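Entry
Fold in token form

___
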Amino acid sequence: MLATVVPVKNEEKRLKKTIETLLAIPSNLIIPVINGSSDNSFNIVQQIRSKQVSPVHFIETLGIDIPRAVGAKVAINKGAAAVLFLDGDMDGDIVESLRELFLAVERGLADMALTDCYPGQYLPGLSSLANEVLVVRRKLNREMGLEKIIGAASPSHGPHVVSRRFLLNIPLRDLAVPPVSLARAVKKGLTIQVGASIPHKLLGSPEKNFIHSELIAETIIGDCLEALCAYRDKKRSRRSGLINYDGYNPQRRWDLLDKFVKQHTKNNIPL
């Protein structure tokens, strides 16, 4: 069974098309994780007449990436053989690319199939902030021996698919810090590949304001720093020099994740 986890927070303008894309793959199970949405997102999901769509609804906001772990827990319990992670606002025409990601895992070519959204280290038209993030992502991949295989690709950016073996070997908490899940996978000897190339502008995600973009960049940089520590078997830290890259990290609701997992544990999945 192929499952998709769709983190959703106030995505009413794009969510219907995103789910329609997933129904066209087809994904056997679509798990929208609606958290803290104050718009019509939950009603939109409920109006989609498909047994494949099985939403999880949180009144409280889970924080960035926590919905991935929540959805992964549901997918594991349902017996999913592969799980796609796709943000609810990614409504671009990317059906074929999503199929390629699933196929890479289904055929045993990868335990994690990533999307390459930026094939170069420095690209014209990117902000200095975006390039800084790419530099840190590439540095992490280089240290783990992945740079020649995946470049600057990261589970922090773009749709990606993981195998059941991946989910059974990586703690759910680490799925909520995507670069750390990548580092853990390398340490476990799992196979990482680029499964598709989708230029960022074709994903369909709306442009964000500068403050949000800055916080996202700080989050990803901090996550990569944590991943470096995890790979080196050192105490995890988000600090580089005098700067602590927190971004949205303090908003991650580990307590809600832990509560959900305890309520839905059927398999011995590590926390």
The CA atoms of residues 77 and 267 lie 7 Å apart. The chain has a mean pLDDT of 93. The radius of gyration is 17 Å.
